[in-house]
Amino acid sequence: MDSAIGRYERTGLEATLGYYNDLGSVDGQWYVFIIDSDGELIGHYDQERRGLNLNDWVGTDINGFKFGPEMLSADKTGKWVPYVYNNPARGTLSDDSSFELKNAWVVRHDGLLFGSGWYIDAEQFLPALIADAVEHFRAGGLEAILAFYNDPQGISAGLIPTVEYYNSTNTLDGYFSGFIAAPDGEIVSHFDPAVIGTDIEDLLGPAVRNATPDGTWITADDNDPAAHGPHTMRIWVADIDGTLIGGGWYTNPAR
């Protein structure tokens, strides 16, 4: 984002818009968009999007999540905003198969909002996210990892609005969430407050104990069919001296 703001400072708004409104500025999945103080999209490679306002339908993704207000609340320190949107590297806006979860970083500058982001490959993103969480835990214990998860400018906290949307609707049978469980199995951190204090094996089944220090994918198939646990589960979890740190997609048995 610094390069886009730097271009604006060097060349002015008109020249900057001329550059980013050109399809040639798109690099695979990467492109910059610019929003004015009224919420109007003035910079975007797709001319059909320019002139639309994030307070209107264009600020709602295909699943109904209203990401527009989240973006417009960003300030000069920046903010992560996740939503489902077209990946230009995979297809056009009319191609439903090109829509993927995107994590955008947006920054307010001179009353304008500059944004860009990347499309999340869950198989790569989740292990990387948990690895970062583990490093915070090793450096500063539970306090440090909770600060990492709860940082309002952090990439993990950026997922919270989307998780809130999915958890309040019937959009998905399961949902994404991160968790931390103490060595005795007690869940000490989870998106759903009702789960905190319960046992991790009650939530995910005994297969969660197969985790390694480097991290392991655990699925519903890893559990004994006779054992208690969700029927659908795919999580990445690391065991750090008995403390389990993980996240993924699973069905809460209590729901």
Q: How would you characterize the overall build of this protein?
A:
By secondary structure, this protein is of the alpha+beta class. It folds into 2 domains: 2-119, Beta-Lactamase; 122-250, Beta-Lactamase (2-Layer Sandwich), CATH 3.30.450. Helices cover 25% and strands 25% of the residues. The protein has 6 helices and 10 strands; from the N terminus they run ααββαβββααββαβββ. It has helices spanning 2-11, 13-20, 68-72, 122-150, 160-167, 200-204; strands at 33-35, 41-43, 79-86, 99-109, 112-119, 175-181, 187-190, 216-219, 233-240, 243-250. The strands form 2 sheets. Strands 2-1-5-4-3 form a 5-stranded antiparallel sheet. α1 packs across α2 (13-20). It is elongated, with a radius of gyration of 20 Å. Residues 166-174 have low confidence and may be disordered.
Topology:
Layout: H1 2-11, H2 13-20, E1 33-35, E2 41-43, H3 68-72, E3 79-86, E4 99-109, E5 112-119, H4 122-150, H5 160-167, E6 175-181, E7 187-190, H6 200-204, E8 216-219, E9 233-240, E10 243-250
Antiparallel strand pairs: 1-2, 1-5, 3-4, 4-5, 6-7, 6-10, 8-9, 9-10
The CATH topology of the largest domain corresponds to Beta-Lactamase
Shape: elongated
Mean pLDDT: 81
Percent of residues in beta strands? 25-35%
Major sheet attributes: 5 strands, antiparallel
Going by CATH, the architecture of the largest domain would be 2-Layer Sandwich
Count every helix, treating DSSP H or I runs of 4 or more residues as helices. Answer: 6
* CATH class membership of the largest domain: Alpha Beta
Radius of gyration: 20 Å
Euclidean distance between termini CA atoms: 41 Å
Q: Give the low-confidence spans.
A: 166-174
**Structural class, judged by helices and strands?**
alpha+beta
